[in-house]
Amino acid sequence: MNELQVTQDLITLAVIRSGIRLATPVILGALGFAMCNRAGVLNFAIEGMMLFGAFSAIVAAFLLGNTYLGVVVAILAGGLIGAIFAAVYLKYKVDLVILALALNLFISEMTVFFLRVVFGAFGSWSDPSIHQLPDIEIPIVNQIPIVGELLSGHNIIVYTSWIATIALFIILFHTKFGRHIRAVGENQSAAETVGIDVARVKIFVLVLSGCLAALGGAFLSVGHLTLFTRDMSNGRGWLAVTAALFGFSHPIGVFFTGLFFGFADAFAVRLQTVTTIPPSLVQFLPNVAALVALILVGARGKIREELARRRFRQRAKQEVPGAAATPAE
Amino acid sequence: MTAQRRRQIFDAVLIPILAIITGLAVSSAFILMTNTPPLVAYQELFKAGFGCETLDNCSLFTTLERATPLILTGLSAVMAFRSGLFSIGQEGQFLLGALIAAWLGYAIDLPPVLHALVILVLAMVLGAAYAYIPAVLKVRLNVNEIISTIILNSIAALFVTYMVNYPLRANRNSTASTPIIHSSAELPSFFAGSHWGVGFLIAVAAVIFVWFYLWRTVPGYEQRMSGQAPFFARYGGIRSERAAIRGMLISGALAGLAGGIEVLGVNRQIVAGFSSGLGFDGVLVAILGQAHPLGVFLVAILFAGIRLGAELGLQITTNIPRELGGGILALIILFVAARSLFSDIINLFRNSFGAGRGIPKEDKA
Asked: How many domains, chain A?
């Protein structure tokens, strides 16, 4: 009886741990989308960038014989995709959504194409010479009873996602460049007027989001597994977009919504093994939560708008009697 | 026909053609990696995608069969785009239409034609209802329709997986599937051994309907104006929110219809893992077809043909992975979107054919 209790506790802890792991690609992708969103760029290519990161990480790890180098190559490759994206968007004025859809399709199809042409693999590929990213114990933290077990013993990409969250928070809200990014997102022409280089900001966020999403993809192919399969990102890029909006494009908020999605995922897996609840019903959970969150976000915006309008009307009434009837443009 | 109108048509036709040529040219680089001469590969692709040797061995029929759902989901995307909503919810609406068709196809008994008719109408209603959610969220709460439709797509896909695996499952085989529909619900095909049939005629009718609705009726005009110039529309007294919701309802109905036709006319059941991507392709078809019904019709056939050609021609005959087909399509979409890339070439064409003054270069970045 007592032993059973302990096992159950352990499994619960394991579920939280796996939730933290599963959240990593979503968090990284969501941070990328959030940064773009802050600069007024809707980057729906996160899914494709993530898939490309997964692909280039494992291929580079194989060719260079070092998994860490593979991760670095993935980051660079993601940045390159972001740069191409930015160049086509800024130079040729291609609609961003269309560009993203085309890029997602292209990467989804051509990664499989290349695997077959280069490695002769059908849809999924791995090689015994590729090592998984090792888990790293954090010296002092891993001595703390439960917290240590949760926070320590992850691979470098998990830690990077935490550091990136804090770094992006600082950049966005406590540096001049971050203020520029937000200014471009809030009012592009005003930002241009005061001399902010809008193109540079947009290139920066697109390259950065490419790097982050690709790092998330690398987690899938060399961190979580050592394998690449067709459409490996499997909608995580889209989940990341949802998480970013759910977290109001604020790095800290984005981190916790990403974590929530990870937990929901891990919980679905656990419910599936422990109970007979159909897995597809359990997977509803994060999707329905996301939809509800979207509705709440929308309602919040609407309510704020309404409150602002009311306040404006009241002030107008106080200052100029009768002006409330004809609100100024 | 005014000079401006002529120029519009000229652009609308020339840009996709240039994009297709450029897309194929760039893809040649990938074909060279496989040590096959590009021209040989393209010959195989087009032979397998659009060729027709005898009536029994006609891949064009298969292409038209596969183009049928693409035409309808493409039209669905056009209806959404033209109301100003970039909805990509066709996949979810398609899946629900397919689900109800697979279920009612065996669960109820009705006389032949009526059975199919009832099912298709219900598939349209269900698709429309599912499209109503993102529409009303957008109009009332300003929820981004791309995001909401992405989530609704995955919810619909999960729901279909659940229904096929549990409540509607026909047997205990390793792959779950619904029972085969009754013959009274089947949509007949033109030739034995092919599924190209009545569904295609419905799709053609839908092309004409969408064109007529958008360009020849008052609600269609209101919808286009609300999509193109919302402020102008409201100034002119159009209730643009209503027009947008109306457009989305028709959009959902078309996608649901596509799902219904796919089950009644081709698959006759739903097998687990039925996540076709046909709804998503519809969005791309609508983009390539310049959000015009006629463009959608032609591009859907091109799309289906290139996919089929890549499967049968490239993969089987020349051993080039069929994924190249999707790669080519992605490049073509990219080049269509990057139309300013071609403005120099278009000006050149226009000057040499004397079709009027050249267009000014769009970009000044």
From this structure: 1
